[in-house]
Amino acid sequence: MKFKPQTGFTMMELLIVLVIVGLLAALVGPSLYKRVNPAKASVAKAQIQNFSGALDAYFVDVGDFPSDAEGLAALRVKPSGAEGWQGPYLKKEVPLDPWSRPYVYKSPGRNGGYEIVSYGKDGAQGGEGDNADINSWE
User: Fold this and answer.
1) Are 65 and 106 in contact (CB under 8 A)?
2) Distance between CA 17 and CA 23 in Å, rounded?
3) What is the pTM of this model?
4) Residue 50 exposed, middle or buried by CB count within 10 Å (0-12, 13-18, 19+)
5) Domain residue ranges in the chain
6) Which of 22, 24, 97, 125 has an alpha carbon 20 to 30 Å from 75's alpha carbon atom?
Protein backbone atom coordinates (compact mmCIF):
# COMPACT_ATOMS: atom_id res chain seq x y z
CA MET A 1 0.00 0.00 0.00
CA LYS A 2 1.41 3.29 -1.11
CA PHE A 3 0.98 6.40 1.11
CA LYS A 4 -0.73 9.31 -0.65
CA PRO A 5 -0.29 12.78 0.91
CA GLN A 6 -3.52 14.67 1.56
CA THR A 7 -4.05 18.07 0.05
CA GLY A 8 -6.08 20.96 1.44
CA PHE A 9 -5.88 23.70 4.02
CA THR A 10 -5.23 23.24 7.70
CA MET A 11 -7.49 24.76 10.31
CA MET A 12 -4.73 27.24 11.23
CA GLU A 13 -4.43 28.47 7.64
CA LEU A 14 -8.18 29.02 7.42
CA LEU A 15 -8.20 30.95 10.71
CA ILE A 16 -5.37 33.20 9.52
CA VAL A 17 -7.25 33.99 6.29
CA LEU A 18 -10.44 34.77 8.24
CA VAL A 19 -8.55 37.13 10.56
CA ILE A 20 -7.03 38.95 7.59
CA VAL A 21 -10.43 39.31 5.89
CA GLY A 22 -11.93 40.58 9.16
CA LEU A 23 -9.19 43.19 9.54
CA LEU A 24 -9.69 44.40 5.98
CA ALA A 25 -13.45 44.68 6.51
CA ALA A 26 -12.88 46.64 9.73
CA LEU A 27 -10.63 49.10 7.89
CA VAL A 28 -12.68 49.55 4.71
CA GLY A 29 -16.24 49.31 6.13
CA PRO A 30 -16.38 52.66 7.96
CA SER A 31 -15.06 54.62 4.98
CA LEU A 32 -17.75 53.12 2.75
CA TYR A 33 -20.45 53.88 5.32
CA LYS A 34 -19.39 57.54 5.40
CA ARG A 35 -20.26 57.81 1.70
CA VAL A 36 -23.82 56.48 1.99
CA ASN A 37 -25.50 59.47 3.69
CA PRO A 38 -24.06 62.16 1.38
CA ALA A 39 -25.31 60.04 -1.50
CA LYS A 40 -28.80 60.02 0.03
CA ALA A 41 -28.75 63.81 0.29
CA SER A 42 -27.76 64.01 -3.40
CA VAL A 43 -30.66 61.72 -4.34
CA ALA A 44 -33.08 63.90 -2.36
CA LYS A 45 -31.81 67.05 -4.12
CA ALA A 46 -32.22 65.38 -7.52
CA GLN A 47 -35.75 64.23 -6.71
CA ILE A 48 -36.71 67.72 -5.50
CA GLN A 49 -35.38 69.18 -8.77
CA ASN A 50 -37.47 66.63 -10.68
CA PHE A 51 -40.57 67.68 -8.71
CA SER A 52 -39.77 71.35 -9.40
CA GLY A 53 -39.71 70.76 -13.15
CA ALA A 54 -42.98 68.84 -12.99
CA LEU A 55 -44.58 71.56 -10.84
CA ASP A 56 -43.49 74.24 -13.31
CA ALA A 57 -45.13 72.29 -16.15
CA TYR A 58 -48.26 71.88 -14.00
CA PHE A 59 -48.30 75.65 -13.39
CA VAL A 60 -48.02 76.40 -17.12
CA ASP A 61 -50.99 74.12 -17.88
CA VAL A 62 -53.26 74.87 -14.91
CA GLY A 63 -52.25 78.42 -13.96
CA ASP A 64 -51.57 77.65 -10.30
CA PHE A 65 -49.61 75.19 -8.16
CA PRO A 66 -51.35 72.29 -6.41
CA SER A 67 -52.73 73.10 -2.96
CA ASP A 68 -51.29 71.61 0.23
CA ALA A 69 -54.17 69.13 0.29
CA GLU A 70 -53.57 68.04 -3.31
CA GLY A 71 -49.83 67.86 -2.73
CA LEU A 72 -47.37 66.20 -5.07
CA ALA A 73 -50.00 63.57 -5.93
CA ALA A 74 -51.52 66.20 -8.26
CA LEU A 75 -48.55 65.60 -10.55
CA ARG A 76 -49.82 62.05 -11.20
CA VAL A 77 -53.60 62.25 -10.77
CA LYS A 78 -55.77 65.12 -11.98
CA PRO A 79 -57.21 67.04 -9.04
CA SER A 80 -60.82 68.21 -9.23
CA GLY A 81 -61.07 71.69 -10.67
CA ALA A 82 -57.66 71.60 -12.37
CA GLU A 83 -58.75 72.82 -15.78
CA GLY A 84 -56.04 72.49 -18.41
CA TRP A 85 -54.30 69.61 -16.59
CA GLN A 86 -52.16 67.77 -19.17
CA GLY A 87 -50.50 65.23 -16.84
CA PRO A 88 -49.31 63.00 -15.53
CA TYR A 89 -46.25 65.18 -15.00
CA LEU A 90 -44.19 62.41 -13.39
CA LYS A 91 -43.50 59.08 -15.13
CA LYS A 92 -43.72 57.08 -11.89
CA GLU A 93 -45.48 57.41 -8.56
CA VAL A 94 -44.24 60.14 -6.22
CA PRO A 95 -41.30 58.53 -4.41
CA LEU A 96 -40.51 58.72 -0.73
CA ASP A 97 -37.35 60.53 0.27
CA PRO A 98 -34.17 58.42 0.63
CA TRP A 99 -34.99 57.88 4.33
CA SER A 100 -38.39 56.37 3.42
CA ARG A 101 -40.49 59.35 4.45
CA PRO A 102 -42.83 61.45 2.29
CA TYR A 103 -41.59 64.81 1.08
CA VAL A 104 -43.26 67.82 2.70
CA TYR A 105 -45.03 70.01 0.12
CA LYS A 106 -46.44 73.45 0.92
CA SER A 107 -48.15 75.94 -1.34
CA PRO A 108 -47.78 78.83 -1.08
CA GLY A 109 -44.20 78.51 0.03
CA ARG A 110 -41.86 80.94 1.76
CA ASN A 111 -41.21 82.87 -1.44
CA GLY A 112 -44.64 82.32 -2.97
CA GLY A 113 -45.09 79.42 -5.34
CA TYR A 114 -44.28 76.24 -3.43
CA GLU A 115 -41.69 74.57 -1.26
CA ILE A 116 -40.62 70.95 -1.02
CA VAL A 117 -38.65 69.66 1.97
CA SER A 118 -37.04 66.44 3.11
CA TYR A 119 -36.17 66.56 6.81
CA GLY A 120 -33.09 64.36 6.38
CA LYS A 121 -32.04 61.32 8.35
CA ASP A 122 -33.70 62.29 11.64
CA GLY A 123 -37.05 63.22 10.06
CA ALA A 124 -37.26 66.39 12.17
CA GLN A 125 -37.11 70.01 11.09
CA GLY A 126 -33.64 71.57 11.31
CA GLY A 127 -30.47 69.68 12.05
CA GLU A 128 -26.91 69.49 10.78
CA GLY A 129 -24.85 67.01 8.83
CA ASP A 130 -26.88 63.90 7.94
CA ASN A 131 -29.88 65.35 9.79
CA ALA A 132 -29.93 68.59 7.78
CA ASP A 133 -33.06 69.54 5.88
CA ILE A 134 -32.99 69.47 2.09
CA ASN A 135 -35.10 72.28 0.66
CA SER A 136 -36.32 73.25 -2.79
CA TRP A 137 -35.40 76.90 -2.25
CA GLU A 138 -31.70 76.33 -1.54
Assistant:
1) no
2) 10
3) 0.70
4) middle
5) 42-135
6) 125
Q: What pLDDT digit, counting tens, does each position of 78-97 carry?
A: 888 888 888 789 889 999 99
Q: What is the C-alpha to C-alpha distance for residues 55 and 112, in angstroms, rounded to an integer?
A: 13
pLDDT at 54: 92
C-alpha distances (whole Å) from 76 to each of 6, 22, 62, 63 are 67, 48, 14, 17
Residue 118 and residue 101 in contact, taking contact as beta carbons nearer than 8 Å: yes
In CATH, which superfamily holds the domain spanning 42-135?
Glycoprotein, Type 4 Pilin (3.30.700.10)
